């Protein structure tokens, strides 16, 4: 009868370990899903920012240099 009790205890321990592993796996799956969602959102944001940056760079390149004052023509600041 002692042998049956030991086997029963061993089965309970194994079942508990299986339950623990299933719980950890479920938690990891949820974490992976949340990380994937966050990564997807960040990629969308990066794409938008790249588009905005291209627009700004294009605008800066198109600024007419004649609209800018020549540094030699600039009057010195009042404290000079």
From TrEMBL:
Coiled-coil zones: 4-52
Asked if the keyword Coiled coil belongs to this entry, the reply reads yes
| UniProt entry tagged with the keyword Cytoplasm | no
Pfam families per record: SlyX
Domain of life per record = Bacteria
* Keywords, ordered alphabetically: Coiled coil
Q: Which family does it belong to?
A: Belongs to the SlyX family.
In Swiss-Prot or TrEMBL terms, this protein is called Protein SlyX homolog
Species per Swiss-Prot/TrEMBL record: Vibrio comitans NBRC 102076
């Amino acid at each position: 009868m002692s042998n049956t009790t030991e086997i029963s205890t061993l089965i309970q321990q194994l079942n508990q370990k299986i339950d623990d592993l299933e719980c950890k796996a479920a938690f990891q799956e949820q974490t992976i899903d949340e990380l994937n969602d966050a990564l997807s959102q960040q990629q969308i944001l990066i794409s938008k920012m790249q588009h905005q940056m291209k627009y700004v760079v294009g605008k800066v390149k198109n600024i007419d240099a004649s609209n800018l004052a020549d540094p030699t023509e600039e009057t010195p600041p009042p404290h000079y």
